[in-house]
Amino acid sequence: MAASFSLAGKAALVTGANTGLGQAIAVALAEAGADIAAVGRSSAADTGKLVEAAGRRFVEIKADLGDVSVVDGVVDDAVAALGGVDILVNNAGIIRRNDALAFTEDDWDQVMNVNLKSVFFLSQAVARHMVDKGKPGKIINIASMLSYQGGIRVASYTASKSGVAGLTRLLANEWAGKGINVNAIAPGYFVTNNTQALRADEKRNTEILGRIPAGRWGAPEDLGGAAVFLSSSAADYVHGTVLAVDGGWLAR
Fold first, then answer.
1. What is the pLDDT of residue 195?
2. Which residue from 58, 208, 214, 220 puts its CA 20 to 30 A from 245's CA?
């Protein structure tokens, strides 16, 4: 059974892999045997060291995913460097906070472009590559607790992550018959740059921890197992699911 979780011989394209959740996912995939192409605006050198320490190949692709015109080039670069793309993890994301009455169009557009628009068009480009090569593949989108809930003061983030959950199901419906599994992971409250403001707010931090049955914020490494599972042949009959990794938040 352990062999079902092996990613040996696979190549994974992971966005936003320079730090936090993306880095942890990239390293977990590498430890399971996958070579990694990391996409983002800032340096992923630290991720590269960890991937190479796991004995896997690593390539860094600099790109701003707020501009979908870069998408085809990103996929072409990954294919050229690693020989193909078997796994796509759409992890890159940004957040903007403001009262809904004061939320700006710019903060709306920036978040939606990175968190939702790029997810669709990067998935489309990778799926075209998979279909053209006649090879099955896995696409994993990173959703959120706000794919289920409304949140406060994060209008565009909530809209984008709700969209990610719906898009995951839509693409699973269209592409399951083509041998492409599309699923999502919905992290709970994790220690990342995006949650720094919440963790620094003593009242909100206490409220959040009080609702998490596990009694702690998630560590990025807590996502590794879910990512490896959904990337592997063990998940060949899993399509269109949004897997919550949340310390029990939704159960409460």
1. 86
2. 58
